[in-house]
What does this fold into?
Amino acid sequence: MFTLRLLGSASLDGPDGPVAGRAALRQRIALLALLAVEHPRPLSRDSLVASLWPESDTGEARHQLRDSLYLLRAALGDDSVLSTGDDLRLNPARLTCDLWEFEAALAREDLEGAVGVYHGPFLNGFHLSDAEEFERWADGERSRLARRYSQALEQLAEREARAGKPLRTAEWWSRVAATDPYNSRIALRYMEALEAAGDRAGALRHASAHSDLLRTELDAAPEREVVAFAEKLRLESRPASSHKAVPIDATASTAPSPSYPPSPARRRWVTATAVIAALIVGLGVLRGTLSHARSPKLVPQRVAAAPFENRTGRPDLDDLGAMAADWMIRGLMETPLVESPDLEAVYTGGRGDSGRSADPLTAARRQGAGMIIRGSYYRSGDSVLFQAEVADVASGRVLKSFDPVGAPVERATVALEALRERIAGGLSPLVNVLNRGNPVDPDLVLPQSLAAYREFVAGLKARKLDDWGEESEHYRRAARLDSTFVAPLIQLAYRAWLKDECSITDSIGVVLEPRRARLSLWNRMTIDMVRARCRGEMREALRLLEQRYAAYPRSETARAHYALSLQFSNQPRAAREILLRMSPERDLGWWNSPEEVWPRYWWRMAATWHMVGGYRTELDITERWRDSADAQWQIVRGRALSALGREREVMDLLRSTTRGSVDLVAVPQLTIADELAAHGHAATAMAVAESILVRLELLPATDWEREQNIAWANRLLGRTAREREALERIVRSDADTLSRLEAMGRIAVLLADTAQADRIDGILQQESNRPLRSPKVRGQQILARAHIAAGFGRREQAVALLRDASTRGLLELGPSHAFHADPLLSSLRGYPPFDALLVPDN
It folds into this structure.
């Protein structure tokens, strides 16, 4: 007998363990899920084809279905999927399914049996690319089953209340509250149950946690009834209940809480999440999906770790707090036990020098974590003792505490190793009964030296201060203090590539080569990736990033690096698929400051649509990302309107920003003018340029960046003499080397001075071979050379240069985004090799 599990993480098990091979791939699991939900009713082949292979033609899709059925029957038995004419259904004599058990238990009103079977949301974390209909269907089923689970819990709570069992009532209401922590009605019922059980303090804590959650996540206040009841509990003075207050044991039932459904205000967002891939035919879907991402729902299996509190009285031991959290994350992030944030998350989020997080619960909510590990450490003689607890993020309630573990200060890792093992064991029943007994097997080599670890942390802190010299030296010292500690070397190699110091990256690769077999998979892939980027082999780097993401699907770092590199590689559709799965505050919050997270996310998301002609969806994004003061917002909205030919709305947008400083609005408005010109609206583009130019020329010409904008506007207006005058002022200014070389190259084009153009091209070529402050600058240098070549009609040379920049991954949003509206490349339009560069996913 085979078992199909759909509640929680999807799996297919046989008598001898998990089913492996092609029969267990996602398409086959999705096929079984569709048939299981309809059971005992059959499903037609046409319905299955439409859900699973919508992008294939009928013949190919039918072939895919036949192939899937062949593989499933080969693995599960010939009669596992029964066929009657064109209809298919599962054979319950061959296969059982937890979903059937759940619905059968509800049908016979066995509520405890039903909630005991529910191990998490339907197909939790399961996605099928290029199958919009399936995603929409799965999301609907997920919501339906989550509602039935929540209703069952509520009925159990009501039943225990009628039976006069206040403690059991409070336990059930605790689980109801975990399913919808934003619901004030449920929060009130849970508070009333706690008060009836004699735990008035617990009721007040939940009121506070509920209020904080609404305020932090939704910028909303709780219902008046919650506030009034909490105030009543504070003010009333009455005899205590006859029931002794008992902490609620979250492990009383082995079934974990499901992923929290959103509040009523966010349910329409959840409805939309299943149809993300169909955005091009339903703009409202994008609005729903991206709104949902603003407040990531808390995932019970996701565990965050806060830096431990230093109670030793010794400031020199502050780093042990981050080290303790680091150890917990390292030990859990690559196990099947739970999901964990990346190591980077430990060092971000408003932490002061003491190593303490200002608000660990808020940071955990931002990461979408359902639970948090927190603790403290103190001295006992020559040893340091660590103690920890696991708390529920939604309510702040402690779920489990652990006895202190100690070791000498310089061997603190020994104590942390033991504590981590205890926490892993303690988390198992809190997360999933099926995970009991899974050993913690971290994929990362841990440092034996506390001093080495401190140097590593100091390097990460120096990175946040953008002090590359100090940062790199800390990593080197860490590696010298503990030669087995690879993390600082990997970090140094990665950061050196970003700083265009590839000689450092390559030397680290050489040093690590003899130890390659002992490196973790992550470290091998990362060092190979950065060395490929240093060689300019973007295709190879992207292949390694894809493999790393496949091997570490829970890692925000792997997900974010892969998504961004897909955009560099001119693959907007694939990048968008990953971006849509992100919760920016959780997945990018460790990378960008809180005020930068959303603008960066929207900017990249909008670019993926612009590159494939999804201008209406791009425009819809600006309705969700409403920040008219943001220059990038202005550019996104203006270019979308320009591409759609809505010139009057473009002008209305530009007039709405005229109150700002001309130096602030010039670049976005001229960028929009380029877009207008590229889409055939030259007259409107010239009107925009004229408007900006008038304002620019009213100001004193003291700023070379202002001169760049003056030259740009004159170029759009076709006034070559005045453009050249502005460019000559840039050449005489204190502008950076690249800007002056670009101006000199453009002047040579305007004067048809081939000798000067060749000289500038040679200088740019030499400059591009020197170490730069960033590899992206090399892309700008190559683009400047292409502008010169295009200006002289050297189309083959220009395209070769543009292809070189594209192949090396030096263009942040890809060539189709960088080149399509560039006026200095307009002479190449219609030239097939250049047009090929403008095709996304090419």
Summary: The mean pLDDT is 79.
